[in-house]
Specification:
The protein is an alpha/beta fold. It has nine helices and eight strands. The chain has an eight-stranded mixed β-sheet, with helices on both faces. α5 packs antiparallel against α7.
């Protein structure tokens, strides 16, 4: 795991970025999921090493609120537009003209907007475990607030899962989870993501066979002009990034 290189985005938010491989090689950008980090999603699972060994320059970022990046607590800091803009600024800071994109979960949902915004700068992508709704949409905000402020037991099953996922990593912050959920809900889109405005680039959508969102992910693949769907065998949402089958399918797809 290399030391993070810190860059500033937006209104001075510090993001931790990481690179591997030949600076002149084609770039693959890796963007992790909610309550995860570059280390959890891409290093411990072998993605960064695999891509570097295949001759790519690997660029990755801890999204705001995650990993070694700054963790603001205001919901306005976590709109989808802000998260997508962060990724564009990472590419600009590293003077990357074009990059292949690999995102998982929240990173895949952010990638949907990045692909639409940047067009030819992202010629091909892999979007794993992409939700067909707003991330953290099922979170019970009132229960999380009570849990943070007073230690009130949480009864909603989905909210319990989100809290457990966040607390499994010592540096994660429940206030960030809450701000992220509220930031997503504050945006005006009625369909998120909207299949009618799917990105036109070739995209491999990949979701675990045991993931509750698989049919929604499959529908997004079908709605995309150049979408392909890969079912990750025997995996659910939280262990899919560690699948060798997923890694190899993604590698083959990125090669074109």
């Amino acid at each position: 795991m290399p030391n993070p290189q810190l860059i500033e985005v937006g209104e001075g938010v510090s993001l931790a970025t990481y690179t591997w491989g030949d600076p002149e090689a084609p770039v693959v950008l890796l963007v992790h999921g909610f309550a995860s980090s570059t280390r959890d999603n891409w290093v411990l699972t072998g993605w960064a090493r695999m891509l570097e060994q295949e001759g790519y320059r690997v660029l990755s970022v801890d999204q705001r609120g995650h990993g070694a990046s700054e963790k603001p607590h205001q919901s306005d800091d976590y709109t989808m537009r802000t998260l997508a803009s962060d990724i564009e600024q990472v590419l600009d800071t590293y003077l990357v003209d074009d990059a292949l994109y690999v995102g998982y979960s929240l990173g895949a949902r952010v990638g949907w907007d990045v692909l639409r915004d940047l067009g030819d700068r992202i010629p091909r992508a892999v979007l794993g475990g992409i939700p067909d709704g707003r991330p953290l949409e099922r979170l019970d905000v009132a229960e999380v607030r009570g849990y943070i402020d007073h230690g009130t037991p949480v009864t909603d099953p989905a909210t319990k899962d989100y809290i457990a996922l966040t607390e499994r990593v010592a540096d994660n912050d429940l206030e960030v989870m809450l701000a992220l959920a509220l930031g997503m809900r504050g945006e005006s889109r009625t369909i998120d993501p909207d299949p009618a405005t799917a990105p036109g680039q070739p995209i491999l959508f990949a979701t675990g066979s045991d993931d509750a969102i698989i049919e929604g992910s499959r529908r997004l693949a079908e709605a995309s002009p150049n979408g392909t769907f890969f079912e990750i065998p025997g995996r659910h949402h939280f262990n899919a990034p560690g699948s060798k089958a997923f890694r190899l399918a993604a590698l083959e797809y990125l090669r074109g």
